[in-house]
Protein: Universal stress protein
Organism: Marinobacter vinifirmus
Amino acid sequence: MSTYKKVLVAIDLTEEAPQVLNKAKSIAESQAAELLLVHVVEPVGYAYGGDIPMDLSELQDQLDKAAHDQLGQYGEQYGVAKDNQIVTVGRPESEIHRLVKEQGVDLVIVGSHGRKGFQLLLGSTANGVLHGTECDVLAVRIH
């Protein structure tokens, strides 16, 4: 009997994503688990603190489309069905916590850069996901 039935792998869309995806695919296959591929697009307004009085919706749409395209490529490459490729907008930790509940996920896999010192104090997405989710979380060390 497998321990995990539904595995959510949250990736950023950098060249480091395959490191996390390879590990996630291997774990999902070994557990005969369903694999969900997730990317969270942060709202453009966050980056600018909402102080700039301009319409950022076109830029947000471009980021959203680029994320869907890239996630689709990863989905195809790693054999993840379209229905299991999720692009959502918001704060990564909050969106991952929401998806864990909505989708009945029992393992979240995220990449971690293994920050030290000051960066560690500021926290990371991996840390934010760990503190607040009700299922297991695996942080894959990115080299």
User: Anything to note?
Assistant: Strands lie at 6-10, 34-41, 85-89, 107-112, 136-141. The chain has one domain: 6-141.
